[in-house]
Amino acid sequence: MARLDALDVKILNALQKQGRMSNADLADAVALSASACHRRVQRLEADGIIRDYVALLDPRKVDRRTTVFVEITLSGQSDEILDAFEQSVKRIPDVLECHLMAGTADYLLKVMARDTDDFARIHRRHLARLPGVAQMHSSFALRTVRRTTALPL
């Protein structure tokens, strides 16, 4: 794990809140010279700590109002079954996250749909065709209380 000093943490926290800020604004925010700040950001990028820069969309404004969490239990735990499932789920554009779990389900998926009819389409065309699935349970989020992409540092 990379070592982060207090200035690195300030830079990362600022960029997690506003990734498009200019280097000059970032340097001001963390009380560094622009050149020193730029070098630190370049190092954080080269070390893979800053992986990418993205635009975060408002799901409601792009007609993805329905969040569904899908618990999946597979028919077995062999590498072949796990690999086949993982390769297939990666090809479903509506699945934002897929996590291998410890507990009652083997995988937990986060799916974004327009509405319940759209989720039914996703289920029929994609989820029901995933290899190795023994059981599937879907839970619809009624309201999102907190959503962030910022990691606590």
UniProtKB/TrEMBL annotation:
Residues 4-65 form the HTH asnC-type domain. The keyword Iron does not apply. CDD domains: HTH_ARSR. PROSITE patterns: HTH_ASNC_1 (PS00519), HTH_ASNC_2 (PS50956). One of its GO terms (molecular function) is sequence-specific DNA binding. PANTHER family: LEUCINE-RESPONSIVE REGULATORY PROTEIN (PTHR30154), TRANSCRIPTIONAL REGULATOR AZLB (PTHR30154:SF34). This is Winged helix-turn-helix transcriptional regulator. It comes from Oceanomicrobium pacificus. The lineage of its organism: Bacteria, Pseudomonadati, Pseudomonadota, Alphaproteobacteria, Rhodobacterales.
